[in-house]
Write a structure and sequence with these properties.
- The chain is of the alpha/beta class.
- It has 2 domains: 58-172, hypothetical protein tt1634; 191-353, OmpA-like domain (60s Ribosomal Protein L30, Chain: A, 2-Layer Sandwich).
- The chain is built from 10 helices and 9 strands.
- It has helices spanning 2-53, 77-91, 109-117, 119-122, 146-161, 191-220, 225-244, 261-276, 293-313, 338-344, and strands at 58-64, 67-74, 95-101, 127-132, 137-143, 166-172, 280-286, 321-325, 346-353.
- The strands form 2 sheets. It has a 6-stranded mixed sheet, covered by helices on one side. A 3-stranded mixed sheet has the order 8-7-9.
- A hairpin with a 4-residue loop joins β4 and β5.
- α2 packs parallel to α3 (109-117), α6 (191-220) runs antiparallel to α7 and α7 runs antiparallel to α8 (261-276).
- The relative contact order is 0.09.
């Protein structure tokens, strides 16, 4: 009897021990499973953060006769203020409540330059919308001014040269009333004709500037006949450069220091003149008044240096070339219209002395 009792005791102990082992293993399994799920969740959150970190800047601008609305995402307050300032200076009140700041957004210097430079064009649109993203720029607008349309179409052509995807629908309406602005030509319905007029006005002013420079130099060197001869030779070289650029203009890709294909061909002819003549030349980069002073100065310097580097590649000694960026310090005309700003955006060549 006693043996049976002991036997049953051992049986119950074995059963309880087995149950305990099973329970313990189950608990371990449950904890492991939860840990794996938490790890997977953390990995998913990390991937989401990484995806957010590579977000591109995107902006949408809507304009109607009564308001201008900006929305989208930019990297920081400085970029937002720069874009807003360019539009506020023209339109006054701007609704930017939906223009958000996200530090995980990529910085986009090209986009900021483009948006600030298009502010002037929006002034002449009755209704317009612009959507900017890294992959696509879409512009839809209606205007009754042919100069404004020609200006934006030229900028779009430059963007296409940079392999930027652009969709545009610019509708030119017949004006029902005269524009109050005195700074736009109402009879300029042909963009090509407008370009020719711009070039002629630009070159005429450049020629007068160069003649003044030559006359001042001549007066200061009346006592030295050899210097007089040098001035005469320099003026002849200057006249050759001015004649070459009479109906041509050195242009760059939009908001960039990269030369267009046509500009490289023009500089090939400039290089030919310099090879045939013994002189040093100043290359002056000039911008209009759009954008900040710092940005314009930087852009004008880079463009002047880009021209210098191209001429060096064509065999002109670097000692003969001096590149200077003037930003908007020396406008040929007032920066009060699209036409005048086109004139002020330029690269000038000035003969400043003998070959060193």
């Amino acid at each position: 009897m006693v043996r049976k009792q002991w036997l049953w005791l051992f049986v119950w102990i074995f059963i309880f021990f087995s149950i305990f082992c099973v329970w313990n293993k189950s608990k371990e399994f449950y904890l492991r499973k939860n840990r794996v799920l938490n790890i997977d969740k953390n990995i998913s959150n990390t991937k989401a953060l990484k995806t957010k970190a590579i977000e591109d800047m995107h902006i949408k601008i809507l304009k109607n006769p009564n308001s201008l609305i900006l929305s989208g995402v930019v990297i920081n307050r400085a970029v937002k203020d720069e874009i807003l300032e360019s539009y506020k200076s023209i339109f006054g009140e701007v609704n930017a409540s939906k223009l958000l700041i996200n530090k995980n957004t990529k910085d986009d210097l090209f986009g900021v330059d483009l948006l600030t430079n298009l502010a002037e064009d929006f002034k002449y649109f009755e209704n317009a919308s612009l959507i900017y993203s890294k992959d696509l720029i879409e512009i839809n607008a209606t205007t009754s001014n042919s100069v404004a349309k020609a200006s934006i179409l030229r900028k779009i052509d430059i963007l296409k040269d940079q392999d930027v995807k652009v969709k545009q629908n610019i509708i030119l309406k017949q004006a029902t009333e005269n524009l109050k602005s005195d700074d736009l030509e109402q009879n300029s319905t042909n963009p090509k004709e407008s370009d020719e007029n711009l070039s002629k006005q630009n070159i005429t002013t450049n020629l007068s500037d160069s003649n003044i420079d030559a006359n001042i130099s001549a007066k200061s060197n009346d006592t030295n006949s050899s210097n007089d001869n040098n001035i005469s030779v320099n003026k002849q070289i200057q006249d050759k450069l001015d004649s070459l650029l009479k109906d041509k203009k050195v242009r760059f890709l939009y908001a960039s220091d990269k030369l267009t294909k046509k500009s490289r061909k023009i500089l090939d002819q400039v290089a030919k003149i310099l090879k045939e003549n013994n002189c040093t030349v100043e290359i002056g980069g000039h911008t209009d008044s759009d954008g900040t002073r710092k940005r314009n100065l930087n852009l004008s310097k880079r463009r002047a240096k880009s021209v210098k580097q191209y001429l060096i590649k064509k065999g002109i000694s670097k000692e003969r070339l001096k590149a200077i960026g003037y930003a908007d310090e020396y406008p040929l005309v007032k920066n009060d219209s699209l036409k005048n700003k086109e004139i002020n955006r330029r690269v000038e060549f000035k003969v400043i002395g003998e070959k060193k």
